[in-house]
Specification:
Elements (H helix, E strand, L loop, with lengths): L1 H18 L14 E6 L9 E3 L2 E3 L8 E3 L9 E2 L6 E4 L2 E6 L5 E2 L1 E3 L5 E2 L2 E8 L6 E9 L2 H4 L8 E6 L4 E2 L2 E2 L3 E9 L10 E9 L11 E7 L3 E6 L2 E7 L19 E9 L15 E12 L2
Parallel strand pairs: 5-8
Antiparallel strand pairs: 1-22, 2-3, 4-9, 6-7, 7-22, 9-21, 10-21, 11-18, 11-22, 12-13, 12-21, 13-16, 14-15, 16-17, 18-19, 19-20
Length: about 290
């Protein structure tokens, strides 16, 4: 019986590997959704620099602001330098350097904010020890309600911690997580709660090896997260065990904005070491937001 079960598991794994064909995947939001916004990273404005022999442009200022400084801990220093974030050949490049651990964080706060929908981005990730790329959503309830994290809610569509931690090859693993205030819909009392799951490439390849579509669907009752054709995170937001209910963060009371960044170091990924290759790039082909009519 055990031998039979082992053969069945091996068959499932082999079948999963055969079906893993990232280059042949095309994202489809489904007939219930319509495209309401996209950034295909076309050249906008004046040429800001020549990088790798080609003209480089700043990210579209109608869509993105560049946050600066050391944000959320870690070693990175986010800058607004064209070297750390630029558009070239129809792609957004976010680049992290060893010198000064400079990097970039792009935010759509105050510019492109949405309540419910599907959020998708096609991304080729960086890799290596101490490298921590992310594609995520954050609630904006400051102007109207004077609320901030974690009460406003956070949806981490993608996080990856590069290198190896506790023997785990992290460059093969995508993490999906949500955060909220478990105690109230105000700032007091405050108890940070989170729930997350992870997904590993079926063939053991690095996430860096392919441009993959990382997406979330946020509805009034549920948050789902996946990559390409795989859905690996589902969470009912209307009845959270051992939490206040309902949680305003995910109920549509305020919109969420988008963030893309490469963090460096910190307690989760650990610091870069001699194995880390520099510079590291997060290359984004496009970002799209879909909503139901």
């Amino acid at each position: 019986m055990f031998q039979l079960f082992s053969c069945f598991l091996a068959f499932l794994l082999f079948n999963n590997i055969l079906s893993w064909s990232p280059s042949n995947f095309t994202y489809n939001a489904g007939q219930d959704y319509s495209l309401v916004w996209e950034d295909d990273f076309e050249n906008v404005g004046a040429i800001k620099a020549t990088i790798n022999g080609a003209p480089a442009y700043a990210p579209n200022s109608a869509n993105w602001v560049l946050n600066t400084g050391n944000i959320n801990g870690g070693l990175q220093n986010y800058t607004n330098s064209i070297d750390n974030a630029y558009v070239q050949n129809g792609q957004l490049n976010i680049v992290a350097y060893k010198e000064g651990y400079t990097s970039a964080m792009l935010s759509s706060v105050g510019l492109r904010e949405f309540t419910f929908g599907k959020f998708a981005a096609k991304i080729c990730l960086p890799y290596g020890q101490g490298i921590w790329p992310a594609w995520w959503l954050l609630g904006n309830a400051w102007n109207k309600y004077k609320l901030y994290w974690p009460t406003v809610g956070e949806i981490d569509i993608l996080e990856m911690i590069g290198g190896r931690q506790w023997g785990t090859p992290n460059d093969k693993i995508a993490h999906a997580t949500i955060h909220w205030n478990n105690a109230s819909n105000a700032m007091s009392p405050l108890y940070h709660a989170s729930y997350g799951t992870q997904w590993q490439t079926p063939d053991g390849s690095l996430l860096h090896n392919n441009s993959l579509v990382y997406w979330t669907e946020w509805t009034p009752t549920q948050i789902s997260i996946g990559l390409n054709e795989f859905t690996y995170f589902q969470f009912n937001t209307t009845n959270i065990t051992q939490s206040i209910n309902p949680v305003d963060a995910f109920g549509g009371k305020w919109p969420f904005y988008m963030i893309l960044n490469i963090a460096i170091g910190g307690s989760w990924p650990g610091s870069p070491n001699n194995s880390t290759v520099w510079p590291q790039r997060m290359v984004v082909d496009w970002i799209r937001v879909y909503q139901k009519p």
